[in-house]
Amino acid sequence: MMSRWIKIFQLSRTICRLNFSFLNVRHRLKEQLDIYFIVLLCFIAGMIGVFYYYYFQIMEQAYTGLVEFGMANLFFPLILSGLSIILTIISSFLLINLFCFSKDLENILLFPIQPCDIFTSKYISNILFCYGIEILLLFPVCIIQTEHTGDISVIITYISAIIMLPHIVTFPLSVIVTICLKIAMYLRRMRTILAVTGIGIYLAGNVIYRVATADLHMNLEQNFLSGVTQLCTPFPFYDKYICLNTGLKLFAAILSVIAVVGYYYLSNFVIGIKYAVYSRQVRLIAAKMKYHSSSKLKSYFSKECKMFFRNPVYVINGLFGIIITPFLLPFSFRVSAAAESIEQIRILVTAPEFSFYATLFSLAVIVLTSSINVIASSSFSREGANLWIAKLIPYGLKQQAFVKILFAVIVSFVGIIINCLIFKLYFYYNFRQIFVIVLAGTLFTILWNTIGVFIDMKHPKLEWTNEVEAVKQNINVILSIVVCIIISAGYFLIVMKMIQRCFTPFVITGVISCSLLVLILIVCIGITLEQE
């Protein structure tokens, strides 16, 4: 039995390396380090440090605010509730990716390993990833609460919560995914649809149950605070758990670790000793087959859309910065500024003497957020082993590169529209400012995507076993972001010099637009000079 668990943990380690290895750091550390890799690590560490700084500030403001209102006891359950929501979303996507989209399951089934061992290994990989997210998010929170309360037992409470929470969140999702995969095996189809549907029903039912319970509790006690407390309960029996002493909390955490055995018996009971993955059945009826002729541009653009939107890994990593990032600006103003300050900012934005500076600030936000874009800088790498097919089709690689740029620009333009809607509806920008922001922001977006495609076209990452590697472990993505940030800093210095020398807004806007067009033309010429 012990040898079986050793194999399970070895397999889970291999699965973690395939899915969670960032830029192949473990391989690069074994080799001789070069200056480029050291600078890249320092840049990433600096970005993480900036994120931690602002995250620490927000958490400290939240805790001091609750203390001022006399609701310090709500801080810990609120943090755990928010963390449980994050872990639920991450675990849902990760389980669907590990069992429905990852191609390693079909290959691992060829080895002399029982299906329950494979399933248990994937569940352990999911739990380990949740542990990493918990440590990153709860470490500053634990420091803040320990510093303010001066109680060492708070650390024990956080440690036990870190150990227990992933099992509480993941186990129901694991049961649902396992049952859905077993049903899909009998049906020989709809593996992804059944898993997504099962998780969706569970999450919707959980939300409805929590809201109904909180509403009932509020009506019985006629107390709004008790309803909020009931709604923010992170897991069942939380009130009884928080009243335990330190030793019993540690004992409960140890029991949750031993509960990993339950994943093995769950898989063994539901899946059994036989499991097979059936591909989607393709039925071709020659008599009813219709062929439609379309242009090369339309066909290749349709191929780009299907390859991108059919893979959740590409969608999540590509659209996360475009959809989520624009909402961080009003959120940061809402957290750090009072209502009177926001009203003053809105009045200041439309003032004639400050309107151009407000336009430049909004443009800087769009420029920096659009520079962190993985769609263009991984466009050729996403082809993987199928790039030889792209070289054989009667459509040159140069033309394919410009279609990839067009697709990336269209997707990025959605982020510009969202930003402009926020600037208009939240900060009350006028239409003239919005027009300048859209014009200059579109030019910057075209330049960033052209640079990304150009870099990835030169040295694409074609050797990968998982779609995650083509995006998250691609050095071209980091290189494209660094180049775009350096160019952004150059434009910032140029604009600052022009403002100091009292150039008019029309001249500044014209210089930015013309220089961007020249840079776009230079990069496009570099793409056309690329040998087929």
Automatic annotation (TrEMBL):
This is ABC-2 type transport system permease protein. Keywords: Membrane, Transmembrane, Transmembrane helix. The chain crosses the membrane at residues 35-55, 75-102, 123-146, 152-181, 193-212, 248-266, 313-333, 354-381, 401-422, 434-455, 475-494, 506-529.
